[in-house]
Amino acid sequence: MRGEKTYGKRSRAVFDARVVCLPSSSPEQPATPLLKAEKLPPVARRSDLQPQRVAGLRTSPRRALAEHHVNAVVLPVEVLEIEHQTRTMKTGGRLDARAKAEDVAVPKQRTDASKKVASRGRHTFFDDDAGQGGRECSHTGPVIVQPRRSPRKTKQKAKLVPTGPHDDSASDHAHDDGTIECKLSPVEEASKQEGPYQEHCAELLSLSTHPLTDFATWSAEISEHFAVTKIAEASFGEVYRLSLMEDISDFCSTDESVFKVIPLTPAVSALPVDKRKRAAALKKCEGMTSPHDVATEVKLLQRMTSIPGFTNFRDIRILQGRPPPAFIGAYKAWNASQKANKKELSHFPDPVKKSSYNEDQLWAVIEMQDAGSDLERLVEVGSCTSVFDIWDIFWQTVLSIAKGEEGAEFEHRDLHLGNICVRAQSTSLDEAGTTINTKQKLGFTNLETTIIDYTLSRCVMPDTSIAYTDLSAPAQAALFEGDSTEEYQYDIYRYMRGVLYLDEPLAPIHEMTHDALAATERSWEQFHPQTNLVWIHLVLYKLLEQIDWPSAKKVPQKKRKAAEFAVWKRENDLEHVLLQVQDLLDPNAWCGSGIRSATDLVAFAVGEGWLDVEDVVGRESFDEYHFVSGEHPLSSRAEPEQSRGRP
User: Fold this and answer.
1) Under a CB-based contact definition with an 8 Å cutoff, are residues 469 and 458 in contact?
2) What pairs with residue 226 in β-bridges?
3) Consecutive H or E run containing 515
């Protein structure tokens, strides 16, 4: 710990190695007989040693005026004594005895490659290999003594004691001079690495088990066994799937991974100095994400992994460099497919062009379990038209959000169809629904839904802190300004803002001043589960847009085709229930329903008999529970489901 600064007083400094052996001028020191002065040989004179010492220091090309090495660290002497990696220096016995007698700590020196004391800003061998721990330096030449510190500062160092329970092993980390090594936090440890890029991504690196890695190197490693395919685009990142190229019997589809590749904003120190180039670089950064925002999303992924129905987070990596060939090829294939289907091309820059990304571009790569295809794509190809498919997908989504509300005060705040993934255990969605148990209330198909992408989400972390994105910030203003004539989803953002501030989806929040919004005493940091309902309304609205209505089908003969009639009858009943739920979630009838969260909607469904308790708490499999078994439902209730179909 650094002592208080003393202004107006100069410390006594001895820079001649021979003078250090002379008696101290302090009146508290005992008198020491004077030593007989001996005349040094001419070769040992200071004037003769100076050129040799200077020549030894110049082991690298001379730097320009005011130029500092990127890894150079200039710290006070006090800080050098408390470094994460032990650095000790052996000195002469007379010097150590002198320091102990006067209660003055021997400062630890930073040395260069030639074992000479490094000057300010000079590159040292500690910087060359920071992972080798402490090194011992033995001086064969003259010792340069640094200014001694006052006894008051030395006493203050003794206050550095370990916090927490006493540990006998702590003595191993204490030095002879009384200093104690302090363990750094993960963020401080990451920021301690070399270069401005590690410091810029320190928060993300603290969440990862991997160092900053070259993009091309990592891509070459995974390309040996996996094929890279682009499958979707998020607001601030592209989603790629890794598919195993060789058939392995023990490797199933759920073992495959998807990667969300997010371009990160560069460090301020890495931006060009020229005004024009700097403005162009800042313009390019508008579509990128800051490392802090990605770190928030990663923390949300880690928090929600244990809750059923949420994506299984696996890993996070920080990469650097231009996109490699494997990802460039996947990008081109995606654009070609979009063009063939007459859809909008990628809104991300073409990675082939050098102007798109710099050589030092930083990336965050989030690895998750492959949860299947996103619901938006399934709706586009017409794979979700059956009322049984829609029923299972909708209520599984509602149950997942409700469990998130109860377990972590979770709000998704961006739950469009692209952020819901669907996986079928069978080979196709159609085969998943060939056998229908009309006595069930959920699980008519073998479909499984997963909630993904928590970029705008909010939840309570295990340490009770709140992870969220402040959507009232000026940078998020465009989120509420989308044209709903092109996509109904843009209205949902405004509905969400209305229910958060005034419990009214159609409230004209855009006409309210900042002071008027502050007067509501509500913020995006607080828990407002009614925001989940407006997104659930959108999910049901989109699903019902392309449903194959059972009521429009020809009614099978009840006597001649009893099984077909039973299926049609069940479909017709589910259709009417879905229409009732649509009325409950209608933004125009919000105040009359009394439902204010996904949890309320689930409770209402159980009370109406649309769902059973077993459907809410989960079952080990869809085949274990049958209402036609004759036993009481609660007697065969399975244990609460921890993770449906996920490890």
Assistant:
1) yes
2) 244
3) helix 514-519
Residue 82, SS3 per DSSP: coil
> What's the token pair of residue 633?
């439902």
Rounded to whole angstroms, what are the CA distances from 510 to 513, 516, 524?
A: 8, 11, 16
**Radius of gyration over alpha carbons of the chain, in Å?**
34
* Residue-level pLDDT at 628: 42
- Residue 346's nearest CA partner among 462, 484, 237 is 237
Q: Which two tokens stand for residue 574?
A: 């589910």
Q: What is the model's pLDDT at position 310?
A: 97
User: Distance between CA atoms of 574 and 390, rounded to whole angstroms?
Assistant: 10
pLDDT at 173 (0 to 100) = 45
Q: Which amino acid, residue 566?
A: A
Residue type for position 53: R
What is each CA distance from 4 to 1, 80, 155, 208, in whole angstroms?
10, 17, 11, 38
Instruction: Give one DSSP letter per residue of 429-488, joined into a string.
Output: HHHHTSS--TT-SS-SS-EEEEE---TT-BEE-TTS-EE---TTSGGGGGGG---TTT-T
Instruction: Output the CATH code of domain 186-370.
Output: 3.30.200.20
Q: How many CA atoms lie within 13 A of 550 on its CB side?
A: 24
Residue 640, both tokens: 């609460």
Is 535 or 74 the better-scoring residue by pLDDT? Answer: 535
At 113, phi and psi to the nearest 5? Answer: -65, -25
| Pairing status of strand 313-320 against strand 362-369 | antiparallel
Q: Where are the alpha helices (DSSP H) in 305-353?
A: 325-340
Q: Three-state SS for 501?
A: helix
Calpha distance 327→332 (Å, rounded): 9
Angstrom distance (rounded) from CA 641 to CA 501: 35
Domain with CATH 3.30.200.20 in the chain: 186-370
- Taken in order 177, 179, 180, 185, the sign of the CA dihedral is negative
Nearest residue to 642 (alpha-carbon basis) of 444, 426, 412, 407: 407
For the packed helices 215-223 and 325-340, what is the interaxial angle rounded to 10 degrees? 70
Q: What is the DSSP letter of 459?
A: E
Cα(148)–Cα(284) distance, integer angstroms: 52
**Dist CA 169 CA 161 (whole Å):** 13
Cβ 56 vs Cβ 116: under 8 Å: yes
Summarize pLDDT for 489-538 with one digit per residue, the tens: 999 999 999 999 999 999 999 999 999 999 999 999 999 999 999 999 99
568, 552 Cβ separation under 8 angstroms: no
Cβ-based neighbour number of residue 2 at 10 Å: 12
Q: 3-class DSSP state for residue 161?
A: coil
* Residue 502 structure tokens: 């005034």
- Asked if 119 and 57 count as a contact pair (C-beta separation under 8 A), the reply is yes
Question: Comparing 49-63, 147-161, 325-339, which segment has the lowest mean pLDDT?
Answer: 147-161
DSSP letter string over 193-216?
SSSHHHHHTHHHHTT-SS--EEHH
Compute the distance between CA of residue 580 and CA of residue 417 in angstroms, rounded to an integer. 21
Start-end of CATH 1.10.510.10 domains in the chain:
372-647
Strands 213-214 and 313-320: parallel
Over the stretch 572-597, which tens digit does the pLDDT of each residue have? 999 999 999 999 999 988 767 789 99
Which of 403, 375, 411, 429 lies closest to 540 in space, CA to CA? 375
Helices in 289-351 by DSSP H: which ranges?
291-304, 325-340
CB 379 within 8 A of CB 417: yes
- Domain 372-647 sits in CATH at 1.10.510.10
